[in-house]
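User: Need the bound-state model for pyridoxal-5'-phosphate:
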Amino acid sequence: MQPQMHYATWAEVDLGAIAGNVRFFRKTTQRAVMAVVKANAYGHGAAPVARAALEAGASWLAVARAGEALELREAGLAAPILILGYTSPARWMELIRAGVSLTVWSEAQIVEMAAAGRQAGKPAHLHLKVDTGMSRLGTKPEQAPLLAEKIRKLEGVLFEGIFTHFARADEADPAPTDAQSTRFRKVVEALEHAGMRPPWVHASNSAGTLRRPEAWYDLVRVGIAMYGLEPSRACPLPETIRPALAWKSSLAMVKTLPPGRGISYGHVYTTTRDERIGTIPVGYADGFRRIEGNVVLVRGRRVPVIGRVTMDQIMVQLDGVPEAQVGDVVVLIGRQQEECISAEEVAERWGTINYEVTSGLAARVPRLYIGP
Ligand SMILES: Cc1ncc(COP(=O)(O)O)c(C=O)c1O
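Assistant: Bound-state model below.
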């Protein structure tokens, strides 16, 4: 099938790349891999990515919301799933019944979850979150052993894991992560000393997985790097890691306009001579940011987006590609012939990070899966 015959704009997700990236982290860490598939797998499509990751050797899935966990269960995925953050109490019972592991950081939560677990007739599997320096969620390190003890004592809850999250593992300076890593290690040692170490101790996100072997513990939580995207410019990926996502559209109309024609809303661009202008059916409602200076690929060449990005369409200046014609595939992210526009390049143009670029791909953009 030629996608341009069916869709105005679409994303191609290479599940072979996801699988290869998971295998890389399995092999290099020799640890269990938790595939972080929250936010619709960073825009790549939760269930297909999760399935590919599990088939490639991942043993856990991680999400951010109750709905995301249940969507994976409904897709038939039986692997362990952890909700990494807050879950509203109204959802606990259904999640416990679905065998979804939950994150806790306070005594009140533990007590209430134990009640929910008893009512569900199945213990709630809990991971205790320790705040070692992200200052987002988590108990104070010095309180962690007391909470661990509480979980172990109560009927209706099971102490499955303990974890922390790095705030700056992707940066050049190792000192902040050293400090977090040391704080967490002390907690883990205290638990070991007291005979309370749970089966799953974890700390590393992608950057930690790439750089901090001492923080690999029992499993690594790999998100951005599983998609073949770098955690930051200061934390590049090994060459074997491949990006999984390409974002494409096609030329819907090509025309030559005389000098003096204003293009798109506000006429912020006006032709200065006869100019070939292409119209592409992708816009800000697809997740293509409404800023100046966007660039796309046509026939393997970079062409500038001109005039304002509209909700569903953009215009490009095609003078550099005289042979361009209606139906040509346009690449917004990805490779075309010798040229490539990475999610990182787009992120820099948009003043953001690659995470936001792919997770901002709108639901109306169909995801097409290639590879195993
Ligand atoms: C708690 C937690 N662990 C792991 C990850 C994965 O991070 P990354 O995508 O940088 O690998 C995230 C993502 O934000 C997270 O919130």
